[in-house]
Hints:
Layout: H1 9-34, H2 42-46, H3 53-60, H4 63-86, H5 90-107, H6 129-142, H7 151-165
Helix pairs in contact: 1-4, 1-6, 4-5, 5-6
Amino acid sequence: xxxxxxxxxxxxxxxxxxxxxxxxxxxxxxxxxxxxxxxxxxxxxxxxxxxxxxxxxxxxxxxxxxxxxxxxxxxxxxxxxxxxxxxxxxxxxxxxxxxxxxxxxxxxxxxxxxxxxxxxxxxxxxxxxxxxxxxxxxxxxxxxxxxxxxxxxxxxxxxxxxxxxx
Length: 166
């Protein structure tokens, strides 16, 4: 199935810019965790006050599970960020990133009556940057640019050339 570029230059530039910005933010969050040997998700999980709080407490109470969660979180963020920036396995990266961000949101949403010890950016009500980024990734997955600009496009073109040569 061939991806046709039906985007205007402004649409494509805007989608690519959003893709790179969200990808950079996610990659940086993962790299910062990987470079900090003291980092653990335990602080975030202890703050969980909503739908996922029971699951968060279960993770904290199991040191082996916590280690796996920390590893998957760190390297998942790095892989998602690289996938978005490079346009490699782009839809998988965008959907995985959205799911991960929604999990973060369900752990600590900005709802009335919730207070967190960990500092937050500004004052929000229901909608915060995590939710906006999650839905931005859904939008990006729906309007995939990786088959136009990214390693997915390069791989697709190489496959086509290989098929023609046969």
